[in-house]
Amino acid sequence: MAVTFANLVDRVKQQLLGYTKDQASVSFLTAPMTASDTTFSVDTSTAKSLSRGLIEIGDELILAKNYDYTAGTGMVMAGVNGRGREATVAATHAANDIITSDPRFPRVRIKEAINDAINGVYPDLWVFAQYEFPYLAARYEYPIPSDADDVYKVVANTVGPSGVWFPVQSWRFNPMASTTSGQVKPTPTPTGKTLQIYDRIVPGRNVRASYTKAPTLLANDGDLFTSTGFPERYVDLIMYGAIWRLLPAYEAGRLQQSSIEATERAPLVPTSAASQASQYFLALYSKRLEEERSRLQQLFESYQTFNG
């Protein structure tokens, strides 16, 4: 099964919670909720599991004021100011969407950590892209896409039925090309990045530049992991990177001994336990990163020279 952003969030969340039987306090909406609603309808049979404070619906955190358990309604604290709390975005929600009271790891924080992990593996692990353009006899410099961070290789199509693409020997990547008037510009706007070609190529033949770029971050729940440009083989690597970033939040929770449950639990969970677990996942992450980096060095012979 193809891994989506939502699948990845769920897998990271279960790892963080340790597949425990410690059930979260949840209910569900019995009617749709708009992005500006200050009341919401909740299932009457499970509403008592919710309490005042932060609740999570989808990716949004909402500050709940109180509940009418008989009528099955909840009130948002401070009107619309209680919507989209903790740097989340007020959104519409459908009937039967799950409501979680005081989530340990909000989905929006998990998503941020996943994207941070995706960002963090670059440039050790990169994404390839290609760009083709026709060679012109009177031009030496050609614009290439703005997402190009470096050019890996350049080939040109030869004349004849063979269809062979021969390596271009003399070329230079210019990441700081002029964008002022008088320079050759792509359509519709200049990118500030060009490829300079000095080989003799038959005019009209296509030139193909293979370049590296940063991975694309995930945005929507349905986005496939492969839309980042990375293969699914990297899923566990990104999971370990996200978990390593999130686990230390448990240490901050130890400082809040205001509840009886937290006070009783404190002697059972050693100081720095979360930090030690975080270091364990960091070790897994580092090992997988090195494995995949070594694999790229074997697949692409000039990678070490190129990356240097």
Describe the protein:
- The chain has 3 domains: 136 residues; 79 residues, Elongation Factor Tu (Ef-tu), domain 3, CATH 2.40.30; 87 residues, no CATH class.
- Helix content is 27%, strand content 21%.
- The C terminus is likely disordered.
Short overview:
A hairpin with a 4-residue loop joins strand 4 (60-68) and strand 5 (73-76). This protein has 7 helices and 13 strands. With 308 residues, it is an alpha+beta fold.
- Classify the beta-strand content into a percent band: 15-25%
End-to-end gap: 37 Å
Major sheet strand order: 1-6-3-4-5-2
- Poorly predicted residue ranges: 185-189, 303-308
Count of helical stretches:
7
Assign an overall shape: elongated
- In round numbers, the mean pLDDT is 88
Helix content: 25-40%
Q: Which sequence of SSEs, written as H and E, runs from N to C?
A: HEEEEEEHEEEEEEEHHHHH
The tally of structural domains comes to 3
**Number of extended strands:** 13
**Given the helix and strand composition, which structural class is it?**
alpha+beta
Query: Whole-number radius of gyration?
Result: 26 Å
Biggest sheet: strands, sense, closure? 6 strands, antiparallel
